[in-house]
Write a structure and sequence with these properties.
It is built from 20 helices and no strands. By secondary structure, the protein is mostly helical. This is Tetratricopeptide repeat protein.
């Protein structure tokens, strides 16, 4: 006699569907192809979380970051892929070079594209790599070859905002940041620079609310932790700012501007010895355009028993960035 299954038996025998990394990855690629970059990132992060050793998921995530202008983050991901997988993912060299080119770091871009051409003469991006190298050898921009009008517009915004932020010209920076957030909603840095300017010019409570909200979405966000450390320090909330400092204490980013962000945050919050060590490891040639480099490096030097070096840094900083002269110097506790 054939045994029949009850409804409950059928339920018990159903194997639940558990999405794997490939499922999340596919959804991420589909969103990317539709230019829904925020959704693509969410799916790809789930794929990476489920299958952390699948390098292709990391690479695709870096490509999304490139598309939204987060070139530093993209390169950090790609560098980690190379460090873990060696020669298995040579295309990473080209992708890194492309990101550096977008950032205007032409020497770094040339270095990586040459490595790619040498290591992968028949690679998937060899034609693009040779074209990029030709561009880099000329040392001039050729928009029709490799950039897009929107990327150029974003770069102009970035440079203008950077100019005003370095001079603490909050009135000028905030409207531009608001425009950036509207035009480029996926550009991560703009919203954090907006909250920073908001804190020091408009509304401290609102700035903190925004960063705490974003931190819930991105618990590892370097921007959130550095901004909140500064915000809570300025408000005298020691336990809170120290918690955020602990979150970045053992973080050593790849790109110089991210390294600078940590160094200035440590100096701003009174961790002078740690800040001084970080500043000493920075590349001055890449950061001399940052007034914050001179300001906080000199402050860290002064408070760690290096007054002569502090004065030298301060004087050089004031020559390069006259706006610094309105401050009182490194000997004044910030």
């Amino acid at each position: 006699m054939t045994e029949t299954l009850t409804s409950q038996d059928n339920i018990d025998k159903i194997i639940p569907f558990i999405p794997e990394g490939q499922f999340y990855y596919k959804k991420g690629v589909e969103a990317f192809q539709k230019h829904k970059f925020d959704i693509a990132l969410k799916w790809l992060k789930k794929a990476v979380e489920f299958s952390p050793d699948e390098a292709v998921y990391h690479c695709q995530m870096s490509i999304v970051y490139t598309e939204i202008g987060a070139f530093h983050v993209a390169n950090q991901i790609l560098t980690e892929v190379l460090s873990k997988n060696g020669e298995a993912y040579l295309d990473c060299y080209y992708l890194i070079a492309n990101n550096y080119a977008h950032l205007g770091l032409l020497q770094d871009a040339k270095k990586y594209v040459e490595i790619y051409i040498q290591k992968a003469p028949e690679g998937d991006f060899i034609k693009e790599a040779e074209s990029l190298l030709g561009f880099l050898d000329l040392g001039v921009e050729d928009d029709e070859d490799w950039t897009y009008e929107e990327e150029d517009e974003l770069l102009i915004y970035q440079e203008t905002v950077f100019y005003h932020l370095q001079r603490q010209e909050w009135d000028e920076a905030l409207p531009l940041l608001e425009e950036m957030m509207g035009l480029f909603p996926e550009h991560l840095a703009a919203k954090h620079e907006y909250s920073f300017a908001t804190f020091f010019h408009r509304d401290q409570d609102e700035a903190i609310r925004l960063e705490e909200q974003w931190l819930q979405q991105e618990p590892q966000s370097l921007y959130c932790h550095t901004n909140l450390a500064v915000f809570y320090f300025e408000r005298g909330e020691q336990e809170k700012y120290e918690a955020h400092i602990q979150s970045i204490h053992n973080v050593y980013p790849i790109h110089e501007q991210q390294k600078l962000r940590i160094a200035t945050t440590l100096a701003h919050t009174g961790y002078y010895s740690e800040a001084y060590a970080r500043f000493q490891a920075l590349s001055k040639t890449q950061l001399k355009g940052h007034a914050s480099y001179y300001k906080w490096y000199s402050i860290a030097a002064f408070h760690t028993g290096e007054p002569s070096k502090a004065l030298t840094l301060w004087e050089e900083g004031c020559k390069r960035h006259p706006s610094l002269s309105k401050d009182e110097g490194p000997w004044i506790k910030q």
